[in-house]
Write a structure and sequence with these properties.
Largest sheet: 4 strands, mixed
Radius of gyration: 18 Å
Number of helices: 4
Helix content: 10-25%
CATH class of one domain: Alpha Beta
Structural class: alpha+beta
CATH architecture of one domain: 3-Layer(aba) Sandwich
Strand order of the largest sheet: 1-2-9-8
CATH superfamily of one domain: Vaccinia Virus protein VP39
Shape: elongated
Number of strands: 9
Distance between the termini: 18 Å
Strand content: 25-35%
Length: 162
């Protein structure tokens, strides 16, 4: 992703990047290469993981579902995700697992600083739950926790133009 030198400049009309940029420490390097290989007016569609979802999904006795609600105790920071001795993801201790938490400033400011113009940002439909408000109204959300339920939109799609 960070080295597209195999391709000549301005050779693509569209670059689509599903969730994969989370495996790169520096999104700016990817953006620079994509910008180089896109033709003028070319479109770049990149999917990102919302950094606000990380503390809602950790199970590290600090963050995540506690049986009653979502507890968020970790600071909002970016960097490499780590796995501690119990296999729990975190940002402070353990072995780097290969995934990185990119903050909004990294995602969006680096995109525009590279020269892209952002056209649209939207939620990934796979994580939208139409009936979640009904669960809350009926006070069933806490008792019927579903691991696929996301309290914060997990994925974002970004469409930009060169």
């Amino acid at each position: 992703m960070t080295d597209l030198s195999l391709f000549t400049g301005e050779s693509f009309d569209i670059v689509h990047q599903p969730i994969s940029i989370c495996f790169v420490p520096n999104v700016a390097a990817v953006y620079k290469e994509v910008f180089r290989v896109l033709k003028p007016g070319g479109m770049y569609h990149v999917d990102h993981i919302n950094p606000a979802t990380h503390p809602t999904s950790y199970e590290n006795n600090i963050d995540g579902w506690d049986g009653t609600g979502y507890r968020i105790g970790s600071p909002y920071i970016g960097g490499p995700l780590r796995t501690d001795e119990n296999g729990n993801e975190n940002l402070f201790c353990g072995e780097v697992c290969g995934e990185h938490r990119h903050l909004f400033i990294d995602m969006f400011c680096n995109l525009t600083e590279t020269g892209f113009k952002i056209k649209y940002i939207w939620e990934d439909e796979r994580n939208l739950r139409n009936n979640i408000m009904e669960l809350y109204k009926n006070n069933q959300a806490n008792e019927s926790y579903d691991g696929s339920f996301s309290v914060v939109q997990r994925y974002m799609n970004v469409l930009s133009v060169k």
